[in-house]
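Q: C-alpha cells for this one, please.
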Amino acid sequence: MNEKFKQLELFLKSTNFDRGIRLGVAIAVPFGVLYLLGLFEYAPAVVVGAFLNAPGDVPGSYKRKVNAILVSILLTMVITTIILFLKPFFPFLLAAIALITFLVALISVYGFRASLVSFSGLLALVIAFAVQKESAVEILLQVALMGIGGLWYLIVSMVFQRLSPKKDENQLLSDTLLLLGEYLKLRGKLLSKKEKRDDRLKKTFALQTQINEKQETLRETLLTARKRSGRSRYEEKQLLIFLSSIKIFELIEAKHLNYEIIDDVFEDHKRFLKASKKLNKVMGNHLIRLAELLIQKDKIPKKNVLLHALAKANTSITDFIEVVKLPEAREGALILKNLYDYQEQLLQEIRAIRRVMANVKDASRVSLKRQDSSKFLTLQEYRWNVLWQNLNWKSNMFRHSLRLTIAMVFAYALGYFFEIQNTYWILLTIIVIMRPSYGLTKARSKDRIIGTLIGAAIAVGVVLLTQNTVVYALLAYFSLILAFAMLQLNYKSAAALITLSIVFLYSLINPDAFEVIQYRVLDTVIGAVIAVIANYTILPSWEANTLKPKLLNALEMNREYLLATQKLYQDRTAYKLPYNLARKNAFLAVSNLNAAFQRLTQEPESKRKEFQLIYEMVTLNQTMISAIASIGNFIINHQTTPASEGFNTLLHKITNALQRSVDRLDQEPLDSKMEEETIEEAQESLLEKYEQLSNLRDENIKKGNTELDTETLHRLQEAYLIANHMNWLESLSSNLEKATERYGVSLQET
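A: Here is the predicted structure, written as C-alpha cells:
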C-alpha cells in the first residue's frame, strides 16, 4: 500500500500532472470569468483555442516552446478559418481536407516539437467540423476568440513555468536516473544467466533509446538555458546531475562484456560473479530512489548499503584467487578487477549525485566553455530545404502524410455519404492513432479501442446511477485534465478518460447519454480500422525497407568513435573533447538503429525481411560501441603506456572493415584487404605483451614478492583489456562486414 501511495505522490508531483493542471486552469478561468461578465457564449471558442495549443507545451528550450505555441496558434486559426468557410461546398471542402492534412502532417519532418504543432493543426481541422458557424462575422469572431484562447494558454504556461522554473528539468533528470537504474540492474542480470540473455539484450535496446531521448532533451534545456552572466546555484546542481548521468550511461555501455569469455572462464565458478551482480542491483535501486527524491524532496538514503556491496565485490576477487590459485586464476581475477573498477567508478558518480542533491557546499563546479557545450547540441534545422528534401517517395514522412491524407478524405467522404452523425469523431481517432510505423499504429489502435470501451463502460455506470448535469460537467472537466496528464504515461488509460470526458460533455447537450456512448464507441472502432488498414495497404513504410540509412550512420559513427579513441590514447588532454563528441554521435546513431529494430519487431512477421540478419547487425553494432567505450573509459581513468604498433595496426584493420561495410551497403568500390599475416602479427604482439607481464608477475610470486603494486596492476589490466578488446573488435568488425555483405545482397535482390 505504501508503494502505491508513493507512486500516486510521484504522479501528482510530476510534470505530466502539472501540464494537466495547466490545461484545467486554461479551461476553467475563461468559463468562470466570461460567465460572471455575462459573456458565456464566447467561452467555448476561447477554451477550444486553449485546448488546441496545449500539445506544444513540452519540456525543452523556453524560447522554442514559446515559438512552437505561437506558430501553433497561427496555424490553428488559419485552418479553422478555411474549414468553416468551405463547409457548405463539399468538393472544395474535400480538397481542403486533403491539402491541409498533407501539408500539416509533413511539418513533422522538423522534429518532435514540430510534430506536436502538426498535431495541433490536424486537431483544429477536426474540431472545426464540430463548430456550427455560418456567417462571415461569426466565423471570424470564432477564430479571433480561438487566437485569444491560444494566447491565454501561453500566458498560463509561462506563469506555471515562472512558479516552478526548474520542474521540467527535474522531471527529465528523474526519468533519466530511473531509466539508468533499470538499465544497470538489467546489465547485472546479463552477467550470469545466459539462458535469457538474448531477450534481455533486446530489452536493453529499448532502454538505451529512451535514455538517449531524455538526455538529448536535457542537453537542449540545460545547455541553451545558460546566460552570459553564468548559471545559478540551482542550475549548476542540475547540470552536475546531468553530467553524472551521462558518465553513468557511458560506463554502463562500456561494460557490455564479452560474455562468451566470461562463461568460459567462470564456467565452474559462477558464484564469484554474484557479488558484482548484487552490486549492480544495489546501485540500480539507489539510482531509482534518487530519481524519486528529485520529485519527492525526501531524505537521501544512507550510503552504507552501497559501500557494503562494493566491499563484497572487492572481496570476491581475493576469494576467487584463493580458490582457483595463480597463475590459473589470473584471467578471471583481471576480469573481476576490471569489472570492480568500472563499478567503483559508477559508485563515484552516484555519490557525486548524492552530494549535489544533499547540497554539499564543496561539490565540484562545472567548467564548461560555451563554445564547447554548444557542440554537444543536436540542433534542428528549420530551413525550407528540409521540407523540399522530403518531397519524394523514399521519405517516410512523405509517405505517412500521403497515407494520412487518403485516410482522412476517405473517412470524411464515408461519413458524408452515409450521413454518420459525428464524422469528426472518426477523423479524430485517425489523427490520434495513425503513426508513420504500422506497429505503433496497430498498438495505439488496440489501446484506443480498449480504452474507449473501458471509458464507455464507466460512463454507462455513472449514467445509470445519476442523471445530474452538474456531475456530468465535473466528470467531463476532471477526466480531461487526467487524460492530458496520462497521455505520455499510459495511452490506454488516457483513451478511457478522453472517452469519459467527451461522453459527459455531449451528455450536457444531448440528454440521451446512451446514444452518445454508442456512437462514440462505434466511431472509434471505425476510425481505428481505417487507420490500421491504411497503414498496411497505402504506401506502407516497412522498417526493414528503411533501415539502410540508420545502419550506415551507425557504422560510420562507430568508425569515427574508434578513430577518436586512437587519438585519445595518444594524448588524453588534447583529444578529450573530440572523443566526447564522437562518443555522443556514436551513441545517438546506435540508439536510432536500436529504435528502428524495436519498431521492426512490432510489424507483421511476413514484413520482417532478413529479421535475424538485422538483429545480428544491430547486436554487433551495439557490442562494438560498448567495446570501444570500454577502451576509452580505461584510457581516461588510468595512466596508460603509449599505444603499441600492434594496437594501431589492428585498429587500422578494424576501421577498414567498417569502411568496407559502409561501401558494401552503398555499393561503392572496395579497398584492398590488409594481409592476414600482418593482422595475426598485431594480434600476437598484443597478447605477447600481456603474457610477458604475466610471466614476470609469476616469477615475482615464485621469489616471494606476492604484493602487487598499483603500477604493475594497471599495466596488467591495460595489456589484458587492450589485447582482448582489440581482438574482440576485430572479430566483431569481420562478422559485421560479412553480415552487411549478405544484407547488401538481399537489398539488391528485392
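A few notes: Confidence is low (pLDDT under 50) at residues 366-377. The chain has four domains: 1-164, 167-364, 396-541, 543-749.
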